[in-house]
Amino acid sequence: MTGSLLQVWKPSVCTIGLCLLCVPGMASAQVPRIQGQGAAASAMGNAFAAQADDPSALHYNPSGMTQLQGVQFMAGALIAGGETDFTGPTGVTARGDRNGTVAWPPPIHGYMTANLKDLGMTALGDLSMGIGLTVPFGSLTRWQNDGPFRTATTFSALPLLDIKPTLAYKATENVSLGLGADIYTFSGLAGEGHVERQSVWSGGLGIPAGSKVELFGKDTAAGFNASLLYTALRNEAGKPLANIGFVYRSQAALHLNGALLANGASLSDARATLVLPQIITGAIAIWPVRTSEQEWKLEMDVDYVGWKSVRNLDVTLGNVTTIPQPQNWRSTYAVMVGTEYKWLALEWLPHWAVALRGGYTNQQNQVPDASFDPGIPSADLHIVGGGFGLLCREQGSLLGLIRCGDLGFGSVKPEAIGVDFSFQAALYEDRTVSGNRNRNVDGAYESTLYNGSVSIRAVY
What we know:
Elements: H1 3-14, H2 39-43, H3 57-60, E1 71-87, E2 93-96, E3 108-115, E4 127-134, E5 140-142, E6 155-157, E7 160-170, E8 175-186, E9 195-200, E10 212-218, E11 221-234, E12 240-249, E13 252-262, E14 265-276, E15 279-290, E16 294-305, E17 315-317, E18 321-323, E19 332-343, E20 352-363, E21 381-393, E22 397-398, E23 402-403, E24 416-428, E25 431-433, E26 443-459
Antiparallel strand pairs: 1-2, 1-3, 1-26, 3-4, 4-7, 5-6, 6-9, 7-8, 8-11, 9-10, 10-13, 11-12, 12-15, 13-14, 14-17, 15-16, 16-19, 17-18, 19-20, 20-21, 21-24, 22-23, 24-26, 25-26
């Protein structure tokens, strides 16, 4: 493609360029960030950084891994659905969804932790290690091919994976520290294995009107996280009654390389840089009740998300033309509150623990009207949810038929197995967009999204 032809393409490509931070809300229901990385935490509105006492601590507060005994595993998935309704100034309407009733494939999470001291490795002190796999900045949204902004977007996806090798060290009885890497990459295990954006061609340049235009790219990048967990008060049994948590997650820059396609044929190479934001979390948890029979926790977390790092998503085509796409996103705060009540010694269910959970999250809108993208249902948001968990200890039984401690493989038997469930409703405040660079995007947006999550846990 010649430079002059690229110049002709420029106005149209601006409308389909790499605004790729789209619809994370399919899972977290707000910005391109999936907060629900464990069903127990998700049920508590993701207020979990000061509790951090299951393997999802690898995500919420890695220093909490020092609270975990032996070797533990957790795996799960999040199923998300919901719709965004658009009404334009002229009365034209459109509806966006998660590429169907629910997003598929669903965002997943998986963790493995090991307390080396419990395994007899004492030379390094009270050290724990773990590795996790999450989908932290997910994206999947679809609009009609005949909708009012079909030349801007009809489909977008950001199936980014985060591989998390992590260490945690118990420096004193009450202070634990964590340090880990975040390796961001793409894989065919999640969607198409690259970030992509599709639209419908309006005609011209020898490309038939109605052609499917796609822009895609991928890369691997690394960031890091550092964390602290401080126990300010314990009960007589040594269990925390008040915890304070702090987590820092660094920026990471993905230099996406891919191509611009029309009906599957390559028109040009394409490059763009996507800067994932730094995130700072502070949290406090208290246990008004914590005995051998019952536990009640209250927690509040506050996240600062540095979305101001998303200044632009400029696209360079064929090493010749750069298509400016200023974004100028705003940094935001999210406030999360959650509670959990556990029954640890039920007479009618011996050797089991049962937990009920609830939570609320408030998140701010980060996208200004000028760069608003229909792929991101960005507005001030209220998330309400709840859930429950079941943990069967070694001597417990499933329906009186089999001991939970006999559910392992060969000689490897679990000390406990558990399952957690959560459900959340994301209730967006109505938003009216005006003054967007693409006038077809101006109008009113109403979004309601839902998600359900399940996690399975094993302790050895």
